[in-house]
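Long-time lurker. I teach an intro course on protein structure, and each term I like to show students one example going from raw sequence to a predicted 3D structure in token notation. This year I'd like something fresh instead of my usual example. Would anyone be willing to generate the tokens for the chain below so I can use it in lecture? Attribution to the forum is fine with me.
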Amino acid sequence: MESSMNLRREIPVLYLVVPCYNEEEVIEKSAQVLGDKIRRLRKAGRIAAGSKVMFVNDGSKDGTLRLLHQASARDTMFSVISLAGNYGHQSAILAGMMTARKYADAVVTIDADLQQDIEALDKFIDSYMAGSEVVYGVRNDRHSDGFFKKGSATLYYNLMHLLGSRVITNHADYRLMSRKALDALSEYQETNLFLRGLIPTMGFPSDVVYFDVKAREAGHSKYTLSKMMTLAMDGITSMSTRPLRMISVLGLSVFFFSCIMLVIILADWIQGNNVPGYTTSMTVSLLIGGITILSLGIIGEYIGKIYMEAKHRPRYIIDTFVWKEEGGSTCDDRDE
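-- Reply from a regular --
Happy to contribute to a lecture. Here you go:
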């Protein structure tokens, strides 16, 4: 069978999937910039008619949804998915991709804050036309980050690689996926989503496009420290079982250490050396206690994941979906 890298591809219908959570300060600017980019690509013959921007409202509590509906009413290029609640960034992205694959040949996910360079989209399309099924957007550097964020990100990626994850360094969720790759992704049924680690395991021909991070147009980041910590923990426990193996190795090491200490203590006792053992006892007790609590915490994280997976709850629920053909019919599921 001829590989996909050798197939000549037609100009794709492209959808931009944009997750939104409380982005009313920037959403109108985002719609303008993203819409202009789609028009320019269509005019240049890079993408086909029918290409759209699909916004996914992830349970916003401000005026984001109202502004999105206004944009879709003005221009058929914009479609809007509104989730029933706040399901999280990863679920919002998945909801958009799974809906867009019914209409598009390729889907690009991008954040609403416009920090990810939209002009890199040309290189994404070039790579797709050359045969890539997945194209990852990777930031050139982290100069715009503060010391803490830069250091924690470096530590996180190093830890993920140490644990065997194939996550790509400095890649967020700015990526292109073909319909073929999206159809394959739809077969994955994990409740605990970590797309950055999951998608690289699929094995499709892929490429990397580098881009510069821009300053946020307006508002502030909705990715708080707690959300970043949750995402990091999800990434570790969803993509690797090495922490469990490390517990076994650590437990074995402590066992051997305890055996050595026992031999030393018995030797001192036989020789009549009554050395006060308060410091040694406390050190060993604290060491073993700390390791035990840490181990139980790691095991608890995995048990929690199993618990959530066993429920088979939906990863998201779509409340409304507004999609319009150009000069044609309308799919509008909003409750009147």
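Some talking points for your students: The beta strands are 14-20, 52-57, 78-83, 106-109, 134-139, 171-178, 206-211, 318-324, 330-332. The chain is about 45% helix and 15% strand.
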